[in-house]
Amino acid sequence: MNTVTKLKSDTHYDLVAMANELGRDFAARAEAADATDSFVADNYAALKASGLVEAGVPVELGGGGADIDELAQMLRTMAHHCSSTALAFAMHTHQVAIPAWRWKHQKVAAVEPLLKRVAAEKIVLLSSGGSDWVAGSGKAERVEGGFKITARKIFSSATPAGSLLMTTAVLEEQGEPPMVLHFGIPMTSPQVRIDPVWKAMGMRGTASHDIVIDGHVVPEAAVALKRKAGEWHPLFQTIATIAFPLIYGVYLGVAESARDLALALAKKRRPDRHVVDLVGQMDTELRAAEMAHSYMLSVVNRNAPSAETVNDVMIGRRLVADHAIRAVELAMEAAGGSGFYRAQGLERRFRDIQGARYHPMQNGQQSEYAGAMAMGLPVDKIF
After folding, report:
1. Which residues neighbour 253 within 8 Å (Cβ) at sequence distance 6 or greater?
2. Looking at domain 234-374, which CATH architecture does it have?
């Protein structure tokens, strides 16, 4: 593993340069991780050594001070080299970026201890992702001093490297509405285990296994938030607004790398007008995905999460996914039969890009939310 120097411009890391420098090694390992469903463990060791784990922590709290635009570009660049590393790391990155944004823009002091731990200890935060969307998942039971948690958290990327699982459980008490509790659980807890079920079509190196929680007790003081189950909360508006431009930067990078591979293969073919047309369609679809992603980032930069920003980000998420997937489909066609060989790396991108379909809000919910917003109807229970 190469030693990567921390590159800085003023107070910020040069994240793109670092992602490219690290990415050379990531790319060399990507095919083997994909072929064997193996976690990209060496890449995570390199990310820790480089300082990228704490890149999104404010400088004042010991981190790199990178903003959302910089972090998104880092992940987009990383995805050119290894989709799985980029997507798994996006799950840590957004879990850092959200409290960092709240600390900077909302003056929320309660997030300082977590951010300082990320910077000082280089802990890796795990997200339980879609299994913990607005409705929450898992069971919380009140016990002396706290809550006993029983849950299975699916699609938890980078589980072997995780230090702290940022998750939820639903508390149901007589006479009270169901409440979702937010908290962190150390992965070293004896009541926490990884169920290695991740055998997937794409993003095979993310180790997005299930995490099983069987009786871990969360102290009441460690519950960061209680909110009504099954409806949007202002914190979730912040989460949705900030997280998805980061995550979908990865899919944009996957599509860009597929385009580059396809173009190199297409240039080896006889240059008939059909191949030229396919390349033109591919670049047009990719440009649309790039524009949609830029729009998502512009929404973040309003610094005012709300139902409206959720709508705008989710429209962008839909457009990035649709156009990026179509761009990679066209890349396969433009490359011709040689693109069908696994050794070219293009079919791996084709499989990896399919993951863009499955993050919240999927197409049905997104369309309903957008339609309700346009018609002035309630959106608090559409997710």
Report:
1. 75, 76, 77, 78, 79, 80, 83, 86
2. Up-down Bundle (1.20)
